[in-house]
UniProtKB/TrEMBL annotation:
Coiled coil: none
GO cellular component: plasma membrane
Pfam annotation, one family: DUF218
Gene3D superfamilies according to UniProt: HUPs
Regions that span the bilayer: none
Protein name listed in UniProt: DUF218 domain-containing protein
PANTHER family linked to this entry: DUF218 DOMAIN-CONTAINING PROTEIN, INNER MEMBRANE PROTEIN, PROBABLE PERMEASE
Highest taxon above the source species: Bacteria
Ranges where the DUF218 domain occurs: 41-148
InterPro entries per the UniProt record, alphabetical: Cell_Envelope_Assoc, DUF218, Rossmann-like_a/b/a_fold
């Protein structure tokens, strides 16, 4: 399962843009953002075992892209996977209601506050191409917290192979790139610059037909 040669450069350009390249350091809590990618829970477990945080919150209900794979909810399945990887049950909190990234942040914050846990720093664990959007959303909704983004450190080709669906990965990359601008315009996230090379790669992939995850223009 490999990227077509004619698309590789543009896809790699978007992939590199969404990687925040944050240097990992210990934080108060890890937050695993629900999605179709179980690798998020794998990364959370690895970082927990590396001593990067003493507890992890898995957050996520379901979306149309995840309900078949995770019928009991993204966060519930993530928790089960982390338990299988040796994370202690008492180190895991589950937030099972979030249906978007904004919910992930606000509902996780409420959960932590309800437990009396003071949080000054978080590691946001997501799919690799969700890092930038997750960061921008967190800085808008929880501006006082120190945010570090993390994902499984896979090269693009290896990530595509792990997902097993080239079209899905490209469509998700294109959709997340659009959301960087649209969500900032609507007040859901802080604004971030988009280099010309990224904008051009995005436009070419949209023209090539990768529109499945685009928001409608009148949204």
């Amino acid at each position: 399962m490999t990227l077509p040669d004619g698309l590789r450069h543009d896809v790699q350009t978007l992939w590199d843009y969404h990687d925040m390249r944050h240097e990992l350091r210990p934080a108060d809590v890890g937050i695993g953002l629900g999605s179709h990618d179980l690798g998020v829970a794998t990364c959370a477990a690895e970082l927990f075992h590396a001593g990067m945080f003493p507890r992890v919150v898995f957050t996520g209900a379901n979306a149309p892209t995840t309900v078949e794979r995770f019928p009991r909810g993204e966060a519930v399945h993530y928790r089960e996977h982390a338990l299988a990887l040796g994370v202690p049950d008492d180190a895991i909190l589950v937030e099972p209601e979030a249906r978007n990234t904004g919910d992930n942040i606000t509902l996780t914050r409420k959960l932590l506050e309800s437990r009396g846990l003071e949080v000054g720093s978080v590691v946001l664990i997501s799919r690799p191409y969700q890092q930038r959007r997750a960061y921008a959303t967190c800085k808008k909704l929880w501006p006082e917290v120190d945010v570090i983004c993390a994902s499984r450190p896979l090269p693009l080709n290896d990530y595509v192979e792990s997902i097993g669906d080239v079209d899905r990965v490209i469509n998700m990359l294109v959709g997340d790139t659009q959301r960087i601008t649209v969500y900032a315009e609507r007040g859901f996230a802080v604004r971030q610059g988009i280099p010309g090379s990224v904008a051009e790669a995005y436009d070419r992939l949209v023209r090539a037909g990768f529109r499945r995850r685009l928001l409608p223009q009148d949204w």
